[in-house]
Amino acid sequence: MLIDLSPSATELLATLSENTRYKIRRGAEKDGVKYRGWNSSPPEVMAAFSEFYDRFASQKGLGQLNRVYLNALEAAGVLDISCVTDKEGRDLVWHVHYRNRHRARLLYSASLFREVENSALRNLIGRANRYHHWQDMLRFKQAGIRVYDFGGWYQGTTDTEKLGINRFKAEFGGTVVTNYNCKLLLTAKSRLLVNAGKWLERAMEPRNGARM
Questions:
Q1: How many helices (H) and strands (E) would you count in the chain?
Q2: Sequence-ordered list of residues with C-beta below 8 angstroms from that of 74, at least 6 positions apart, any chain
Q3: How far apart are CA 56 and CA 54, in angstroms?
Q4: Mean pLDDT, to the nearest integer, of 180-207?
Q5: Which of 45, 70, 134, 211 is the most buried (most CB within 10 A)?
């Protein structure tokens, strides 16, 4: 799901669903949520996000955060982290993007929605997440980035949770586009290394009847 950030902020806001525009305004005006973003993340920000994400992943039955990957993105200068807090300063939602000169692609979106039983707080987190995406879009637009990439789009019809995520993304407008996330091998050395890795994986596979 790609959103063209080249129109004005007013034009972009008009492409959002009416319900989403209302929740963004309420988040800013009545809820008093606060937005912060870093395109070069201090260690304490990385640590805060990592701890928060691991709690989120535990709720969803996901694996813990790949910190090596996150640190590699930061070292390459393409990591962007943002957070929305409530009026008391409690973290509500974290977003992590891969960011280059032309595109910002959502990698992680984490909230503790599932561990909250209070319906008012759950609704607040939902509004905060919409406000969060909108502020991300505005910040990237200001930085000259042309495309906001919501990441994957579920093409099936049976997974209700993923269909719900599709509906959430569609609230922001945009277009579903086929993109590829892959390795492009440009040199003979890279092809040799990848093929050697595949050979090593096959060599290490247990044979029929082998005990592990």
A1: 7, 6
A2: 40, 41, 46
A3: 5
A4: 80
A5: 134
